[in-house]
Amino acid sequence: MTREQFTRQLAETIRMYNAKGWSPATSTNYSFKDMDQAIWVSRSGVDKSQFSASDFITVNNLGNAVGEFKDVRPSAETLIHCVIYQLFPETGVILHSHSVNPVLISALRKDSIEFEGYEIQKGFKGQTTHDATVSIPIFDNTQDMIAFASTLRTNATLLENHAFIMRKHGTYAWGKDLFEAKRHLETLDYLCEAELKLAQIVTPKAK
Amino acid sequence: MTREQFTRQLAETIRMYNAKGWSPATSTNYSFKDMDQAIWVSRSGVDKSQFSASDFITVNNLGNAVGEFKDVRPSAETLIHCVIYQLFPETGVILHSHSVNPVLISALRKDSIEFEGYEIQKGFKGQTTHDATVSIPIFDNTQDMIAFASTLRTNATLLENHAFIMRKHGTYAWGKDLFEAKRHLETLDYLCEAELKLAQIVTPKAK
Amino acid sequence: MTREQFTRQLAETIRMYNAKGWSPATSTNYSFKDMDQAIWVSRSGVDKSQFSASDFITVNNLGNAVGEFKDVRPSAETLIHCVIYQLFPETGVILHSHSVNPVLISALRKDSIEFEGYEIQKGFKGQTTHDATVSIPIFDNTQDMIAFASTLRTNATLLENHAFIMRKHGTYAWGKDLFEAKRHLETLDYLCEAELKLAQIVTPKAK
Amino acid sequence: MTREQFTRQLAETIRMYNAKGWSPATSTNYSFKDMDQAIWVSRSGVDKSQFSASDFITVNNLGNAVGEFKDVRPSAETLIHCVIYQLFPETGVILHSHSVNPVLISALRKDSIEFEGYEIQKGFKGQTTHDATVSIPIFDNTQDMIAFASTLRTNATLLENHAFIMRKHGTYAWGKDLFEAKRHLETLDYLCEAELKLAQIVTPKAK
Lengths: 207, 207, 207, 207
Known about the structure:
The structure is a homotetramer. Chain A is α+β, with helices and mostly antiparallel strands. Chain A has 5 helices and 8 strands; from the N terminus they run αβββαβαββαββα. Chain A has helices at residues 3-19, 78-87, 100-108, 145-154, 178-199, and strands at residues 31-33, 39-42, 56-59, 93-97, 112-116, 133-139, 163-166, 170-175. Chain A has an 8-stranded mixed beta sheet with strand order 3-2-1-4-8-7-6-5, with helices on both faces. In chain A, strand 6 (133-139), helix 4 and strand 7 (163-166) form a beta-alpha-beta unit. In chain A, helix 2 (78-87) runs parallel beside helix 4 (145-154) and helix 3 packs across helix 5. The longest helix of chain A is centred in the last third of the chain and has 22 residues, at 178-199. At the A-B interface, helix 5 of A face helix 3 and helix 5 of B.
């Protein structure tokens, strides 16, 4: 697949997630690594309902725009993407969501959320059964991206399920390709939606 | 209707259910019997938002891919489909959903869920009035498909409403054709959504 | 507007309501009066996601198919439509919905549901302010359409807001044209959704 | 961008919001200022699912239709738009929503709703961090638009976040262009949805 074909697929996914309400207005950011290992990230300030394949720019490992894009603003959270590529070198795509479900779960929990018994847990690479407990870390939000990058490095061992939640902000999920990254992002959202609805139950045995 | 026309219709239904959130990423599986009574099942690992008419393969009664598809992986849950075709020979289509509604109902109930008084209950073939109680069985989930096939055979008498729930996994529903199978799957989901929302009610008479 | 143009518009509305989840599988039925005052009703057993302009048949005042459609089955609830046209002769279109919101409201109330203070109440023809109480009757469901027709005639004075709810079944709403009928159906659904969500509130002043 | 291109964009946004359920039937109204500073407002009584670029008319500062549109009815709430353009001269687009989320929040609060800690708060122009409290005023609804215009003028200092809620009616949000106005409207709706769902939580720590 050429980079043009890939960016069209990723742009389509971004618009689809916007239609689900996962990226109100300009929120969220996305990235991928091309065949030359260059990192491409979504440019800042684009309405995600209109996101197109040409809205990506190249950045270096410090999250700064380079080359022809030198004067274009990458997403403010670009550094998060760079750290994930460094911690997990097999990563090819990183997705970000502001879906309400994980945002509310993070308002109800402290450092992590645990799921157990759901078949969908197998959506996380490495999980092979529903009969297990999956833990996803919840980090406090911050406007200091350098501090947050440090938090991720310090807590790398908690990222074994290829996703994390930023409190009252959103989720990041990644994979070796778009297919895998989507599976991780959507699995986490589904589980958060399930736990949120369970927490709204008043009369479990009511009929 | 030719098999090509039918698989296009079924693929469209599969993509439509994915858009509803009923099959995150690669989850769920679907099957049908063709005019020669051969069983076709969805191949494993396909993103259901991209499912196409060519993503079906033929399997034998043991759930193994045969013929030209000998080396392709059928869905892991293929054996479930084979058992349903054996227990209910008039079955033509089997659908599977990971919709959150039945998954959460199964977290709140033990062996079954009962519905009564809903007009939509008539959506289950054999039900002719709202003034009745419909029972849908809930089976524990398992990664052992041979064990689960056995569970289905043992509990065949509970499957009179052409659907069942696997705990914290999803639903299976079937019918003589796509139209009937859809009606069973959607009726069950609607009823689970209704009961779930009722269980979230705090102040029934509030105004 | 010709009848062909009108039926295409109404069929589009029917498919749109199906996409909203208001008519799972074959449920619901719709009708209109043409320029010759003939009543056309949706034929029975059509998947509403596939409903087309040619899926209407003519019936007489008793709800029986006539003319070229003599051998086609009209919707089982056709008699309800005939009674509404008789009680309210200016009616041009009648819509029916199985949306979960009013269905659940009817499980929580007895003979009626009252709304007050919502701007959207002005969506009911005759209502000119939010500062009023609007009452919508809830009738018990029944499989006996002749009995239900009688219930409607007996309670005609309660139908001043051009809509009613059948318990754990759905809503009927009507108007002089499609635009007005839609406004009545959607206004009622919106109000039921609002009251249902309010009834799920645990901590009103929580922050 | 020509006015024709702009009205096509705004009409597309209006239809998109209608598909989200934010403008049942004919509810809501929208406006923009063209390059000559003339105010264009949506005409009254149009089904927003069918709204087109030609459904705007020019009004003067008193909210009355002028010029070629002299005999067309502007939206009843046109005066609200005129006041906002006067209070905030850099405003280019004003949007209105009847989404259930803010409507229910206004049923649960008195004069305002506060949000704090959400990353999405940065969607309001002027907000630069999640670590702040954002206050959005809630005004009582009224059918007297002249009285409401006066209320807005009196409370102009509360409108610093470019949006307000009318109790059990809906929201108004504005910005220098469509992009900014959408961001304000969607940010407010997202925050109201979040707070509403939190208020439905029964067992926060349940697992």
